[in-house]
């Protein structure tokens, strides 16, 4: 069994940032575990520019940003294992994971949970349909286009206006798809990043606020959607129904914190799975900390980075107290 001073579960931006910050402040033996093929988390789905970090003076694209962090991981001799899924953490700080190598056992003095968040199941959006093809999540859309080179549809309606919806709309437009509009049930867009807001203006994306998709129509594949205007009480306004032809409906739904492993060992979480932290960024389990979107749900990159740097210092303080 390999022993470490600190193990970070999750190799997205929050996990990488926490590991690098801990190393820079004196933590010696660090391991990052991630279940995906490569480090980088949800940012691997993106290709747009606008990223900055302290390791580069230039404005970077998403792939360049990830590469700059991976370069530092190699430089700092931080161990990491991809395609490694943590299945159990016990109260003695023992971690059990499975990978192509088999069942792996690790022990650590401190643990940081940085598993990020994922799209909720598609059934979360209560829309009448015949379960036809052509309904997909925004993050899955980004993966298909930017990672696999697959265009999921030619005429697209997007439901939801979070950052991932705008990024998906941008990628679709650049690949030649016709984004007919973004449907938002509230009276304003929910995108929070500066880049996403700029994309709306730059690409002249049609935003339909106070509107809801009430029905999906199609045999085999989506052929059209029915949209309806909403009043101030979020109730459909009579006689405002309208059919919009499309072959794809993209759902930008709330991101659910990937906190199942934490819940499994009794760590306290909130209603939607956000891990609860004390003032020292420690979970309800001693020696186990958490950072990033697994504690907040979707959040801006700047806030994730600051949060991850803070948890690294909290873990260091804990290690120094042992």
What is the compact description of this entry?
This protein has 322 residues and is an alpha/beta fold. It is built from seven helices and 19 strands.
Notes on the protein architecture:
The protein is built from 7 helices and 19 strands. The strands form 5 sheets. Strands 1, 2, 5, 6, 7, 8 and 19 form a 7-stranded mixed beta sheet that branches. Strands 10-17-11-12-13 form a 5-stranded parallel beta sheet. The model has no long low-confidence stretch (mean pLDDT 91). Strand 6 and strand 7 form a beta hairpin. The chain is α/β, with parallel strands linked by helices and 322 residues long. It holds the Pfam family Pyr_redox_2.
Based on secondary structure, the structural category is: alpha/beta
* Number of E-state strands: 19
CATH topology of the largest domain: FAD/NAD(P)-binding domain
The helical percent reads 25-40%
> Which homologous superfamily in CATH is the superfamily of the largest domain?
FAD/NAD(P)-binding domain
CATH structural class of the largest domain: Alpha Beta
Rg to the nearest angstrom? 21 Å
> Roughly what is the average pLDDT, rounded to an integer?
91
* Spatial gap, N to C terminus: 21 Å
What is the total number of structural domains? 2
Shape: elongated
Number of helices: 7
Organism: Clostridium senegalense
Keywords: Oxidoreductase
Protein name: FAD-dependent oxidoreductase
InterPro entries: FAD/NAD-bd_sf, FAD/NAD-binding_dom, Metab_Enz_Cyan_OpOx_G3PDH
